[in-house]
Amino acid sequence: MTIFRTALATFAITAVTIFTASTSFAQVSKDSMNTLKQQKDVLKLQAKINNQKMELAKLENKLEQKTREVVSTTAEAKKAAEENADAANRLSNEPQDKSTARKAENAGDAARKSAKHARIAADDLENLKKDINNLKNKIAEEEAKLPLPPTQP
After folding, report:
1. What is the pLDDT of residues 90-131, one digit of tens each?
2. From the centroid of its chain, how far is CA 74?
3. Which residue of 39, 86, 96, 120 lies most exposed, with the fewest beta carbons within 10 A?
4. Which stretches of the chain are DSSP H helices?
5. List of the chain residues with pLDDT < 70
6. The CATH number of domain 65-145 is 1.10.4030
């Protein structure tokens, strides 16, 4: 009977030890899983931020091109308006001349089209600037979601 009691006591102690060890292992495992999940979420957020920053760089590279386009189309529109004014002035000197009237009409059409192109270029530039500002705001919002790195004493 003593051997039976000793075996039973040893079995009970072993069972309690295994149960305790498995419970603590499960807790460590859950903590590790939570930590890994948080790290995964942070990495996803960092990847999203990096993609947004690459898109921002592309938009900022387009900004210089669009600015040059606005300057050139504005200059073209101004030139076309001056040519239209000259043609209109010539037409006012010779109101019955068909050729002068046709040239004045064509100059007016060219001025209208140039002005339209200049407006479109200016609108495109403004939209690009808005897109850049919106993307900067989104990046700032996403960066605010990132956890702060631990401070070292």
Report:
1. 988 888 888 988 988 999 999 999 999 999 999 999 999 999
2. 29
3. 96
4. 2-93, 98-145
5. 1-28, 149-153
6. no
